[in-house]
Design goal:
This protein has twelve helices and seven strands. It is of the alpha+beta class. The chain is elongated, with a radius of gyration of 33 Å.
Length: about 325
């Protein structure tokens, strides 16, 4: 069935209205296709320049008529804190906040909690501990140290509501913390659709790069400390030698000033040398984020990585189309 309505654009012409006609694409589809945007004299305006204004006006009109605007999949997705959203966008991995909402919250709703011990026992099965942070409570991963506000996971898990139900807050015992450290089901930043083998390779390369960089920093600290100590010892001995010379106080002062100048020059040279070594360590090879690792493997013609990249591009195109709607 064809529907028609008027939308006011505010053009500086004699007629400030545009007539819009819409028809359904199919009988089973909820989306509608815009056939044309007609001016007061019946001419058709191109859709490319008025598409955004059209949908903005249509949504405003739906609200004025008391109708419920259709929500796209992008708007229906649960929001996560800004830092977690940035982490997911940059690293292409699941954030701890999203994992808590998708895994921890349903399990909590299905569990009857009568005391704080029940809460701590439940959290320990997922490798998580609940503790105070500021004026509220947070869920914290015992292995990675990441945390999220308990009230974000579920409003009924806020400190105020839990204390009303269970009494004053009680900390988890050492035994419950040990159980949490050995929990088989715990948070992992692994993407949901990532191949297990490819993710294991990424973790191995990441751990190898971290180990190499850690060893390089330890070696740098030892060598830098040794060279600084040798430089100080060298000029300490030379000052003692000058003090033992049978010369006048004026000549001794001049020799000591020359020695201090040479020490300053060598110290600055050593600082430049150590700075170059630090920059070299910082530029050592690193696999980067999961997104960078997948892109590099795809460039090396890894079939698993190519499938992930293609799937990500399809999702990006679909979400961009939904934002326009």
């Amino acid at each position: 069935m064809r529907k028609a309505f008027w939308i006011r654009w505010g053009f500086p012409s004699t007629s400030t209205s545009q007539f819009v006609t819409t028809i359904p694409i199919t009988s089973t589809s909820t989306s509608r296709s815009i056939r044309s945007i007609q001016g007061p004299f019946g001419f058709t305006r191109p859709l490319g320049t008025t598409r955004k204004k059209l949908f903005t006006g249509a949504r405003a009109l739906e609200r004025e008529l008391g109708q419920t605007p259709l929500r796209s999949r992008t708007r229906e997705r649960e929001r996560v804190p800004q830092r977690d959203a940035d982490c997911e966008a940059h690293h292409a991995v699941e954030s701890f906040a999203r994992w808590d909402r998708e895994k921890l919250r349903p399990a909590l709703h299905a569990t009857e909690l009568r005391s704080w011990n029940d809460v701590h026992d439940f959290c320990s099965r997922f490798g998580v501990v609940i503790r105070t942070h500021g004026n509220g409570l947070v869920f914290e991963d015992v292995e990675r140290g990441v945390r999220v506000k308990a009230s974000f996971v579920a409003r009924e898990l806020s400190k105020t509501r839990l204390c009303e139900r269970l009494g004053a807050f009680q900390r988890a015992s050492e035994q419950q913390r040990e159980v949490a450290q050995q929990a088989p089901h715990r948070y992992s930043p692994m993407p949901a659709r990532a191949p297990q083998g490819l993710w294991k390779e990424y973790e191995q390369s990441l751990e190898q790069a971290r180990t190499q960089r850690r060893e390089a920093w330890n070696s740098y600290r030892n060598s830098a400390s040794r060279e600084r100590q040798q430089l100080r010892q060298k000029y300490r001995l030379q000052r003692r030698f000058i003090d033992a010379l049978p010369v006048s106080a004026r000549d001794r002062g001049q020799l000591l000033r020359q020695l201090a100048l040479r020490q300053t020059i060598e110290t600055r040279g050593l600082k430049r040398k150590l700075a170059i070594q630090r920059r070299a360590i910082e530029k050592t090879w690193h696999p980067g984020t999961w997104r960078h690792f997948v892109a590099r493997r795809a460039s090396e013609r890894d079939a698993r990585a190519i499938r992930l990249v293609q799937q990500r591009e399809r999702e990006r195109d679909r979400f961009s189309d939904e934002r326009e709607l």
